[in-house]
Design brief:
The chain is α/β, with parallel strands linked by helices and 262 residues long. It has 11 helices and 8 strands.
């Protein structure tokens, strides 16, 4: 048997030259990777590790993830520099706390910028310079009260919040995009400046353009906002079409757009 050593003739490829994003998703999330794969541009790559979570989805059960977040973050490409890390759970961020999520991730990945759906959504709200919001979720009424209270405490006027009443994180992905459109349009308050569609397991990214067309206001979803904010963190300069105004040409990931909601 011959043992042969070979050498590469070409320079090593730079994989993901525009950014490497770490993703901490819920163990039961059936949707997050599919959405991110559809939305991220080809020169950005994401790398996922999953944190164990507990159903049914309640605020108390969401908080049980906190002790495992640092260990999960440590499994994201050990020894490879990441440009940003996202914790991909909207309700979990509200339950555990934005600052605590960042602290837990950076215990394992010091110095890496951290985002989450809540921070991303709040940044998007500021981008559009809005004050009054309607919210659509797959959650139960009890969780929705916590979600609404959070945004009210951030200074926003929550005119309405509607939920499908699901307690199983995986089952939330089974909700039809058509039902998401219908629920968003029917539940959005006529005085809202923006609609927020919450939950990374929700297949809302498929229909953001359709909802915006019918409502004629910006529509922000958890996964769309996560992509947008993570691209902000890596200074990605190009717009992305097909996933709502936030990522589209006139708003773009990077720029000085004067934020007009309508």
């Amino acid at each position: 048997m011959k043992i042969i050593n070979v050498q590469h003739q070409q320079p090593l490829d730079h994989i993901a030259p525009a950014g490497r994003i770490g993703v901490i998703s819920l163990a039961t999330d059936f949707n997050i990777e599919t959405d991110l794969q559809r939305i991220y541009p080809n020169d950005v790559r994401f790398f996922t590790s999953r944190v164990k979570n507990v159903n049914p989805l309640t605020i108390e059960n969401l908080r049980t993830m906190a002790p495992r977040i640092s260990d999960t973050a440590a499994t994201l490409l050990p020894g490879t520099k990441l440009d940003a890390i996202m914790y991909a759970c909207t309700s979990g961020t509200i339950a555990i706390g934005v600052d605590r999520i960042t602290e837990l991730v950076q215990q394992a990945q010091p110095g890496v910028p951290v985002t989450n759906p809540v921070t991303s959504a709040l940044s998007a709200f500021k981008r559009f310079n809005i004050q009054k919001i309607s919210i659509l979720t797959p959650y139960t009424e009890t969780v929705n009260v916590e979600v609404a209270d959070f945004f009210i405490k951030q200074g926003y006027e929550v005119l309405s919040i509607a939920g499908f009443g699901f307690e199983d994180d995986t089952a939330m992905t089974y909700i039809s995009p058509k039902d998401i459109v219908d629920a968003a349009v029917s539940s959005c308050d006529k005085n809202a400046d923006l609609m927020f569609v919450s939950c990374t397991a929700f297949r809302a990214s498929h229909v953001l353009d359709e909802i915006e067309k019918q409502l004629d206001i910006p529509v922000i979803s958890s996964n769309q906002a996560l992509v947008w904010h993570s691209l902000q963190l890596v200074n990605y300069p190009k717009a992305i079409e097909g996933f709502g105004r936030l990522l589209a040409t006139e708003y773009g990931p990077i720029g000085t757009h004067q934020n007009l909601a309508k």
